[in-house]
Amino acid sequence: DAMVIQNPRYQVTQFGKPVTLSCSQTLNHNVMYWYQQKSSQAPKLLFHYYDKDFNNEADTPDNFQSRRPNTSFCFLDIRSPGLGDAAMYLCATSTRQGDNSPLHFGNGTRLTVT
Amino acid sequence: GNSVTQMEGPVTLSEEAFLTINCTYTATGYPSLFWYVQYPGEGLQLLLKATKADDKGSNKGFEATYRKETTSFHLEKGSVQVSDSAVYFCALRGINTNAGKSTFGDGTTLTVKP
Question: pLDDT digit string (tens) for B58-67?
């Protein structure tokens, strides 16, 4: 089945130690998103890629970066994680940027910062 | 800007009870409306959607009707099961509205007891 896969499911990192989360998709969708979710709250959009075009949300801290080397993969880099960055990170895809199709989510990576 | 307001939770029901989770929205343009479900420890999954006024989305016994006159998309199920325990998110997304980004409600936690 076509899907969105996130690795790892659980990630523990130390305060200030860089960490990378990965996402891959077999849907061949143009758009990939990274969301941060805390305590079953609404997911908060960090940024998204439309093909290779990167779109950062205005309130996303500089500590968060992303890379999309090809259509299938997208990475979230947290350069210096703080305790407040502990959360579930969700990757999602959609067919196009400006349409009304649903998002397809991965199962998320639960990040713990010690 | 766009917004989605969901009925506050948590909601606790007995098995086979009737479920309603209210959702109202504010949006420019003509968005599609969605309900996503998130089971513990997992990402969001699309539960159902409706793309235009008076459309009814349905899946797994859940239903919601796109009511443009009341700007609502209430989720209903006639007889809930323990396995329906999850967090439910109402969302919208539309062409030419908010650059095609999704807007989520704050989520409603449903617990179904045997």
Answer: 999 999 999 9
Q: Which 8-state DSSP code applies to residue B114?
A: -
Q: Which residue has the tokens 């766009």?
A: B2
Residue B8 makes CB contacts below 8 A (sequence gap 6+) with B106, B108
Measure CA A6 to chain center. 9
Quick check: A97 and B49 CB within 8 A? no
C-alpha closest to that of A21 among A86, A89, A105, A103: A89
What residues of A are in contact with residue B100 (Cβ under 8 Å)? 96-100
Provide CB contacts within 8 A for A10, sequence distance 6+.
Answer: A109, A110, A112
By CB neighbour count within 10 A (0-12 exposed, 13-18 middle, 19+ buried), where does A21 fall?
buried
pLDDT at B95: 67
Q: What is the pLDDT of residues B9-43, one digit of tens each?
A: 899 999 999 999 999 999 877 889 999 999 998 99
Query: Residue B110 burial by CB count (10 A; 0-12/13-18/19+): exposed, middle or buried?
Result: buried
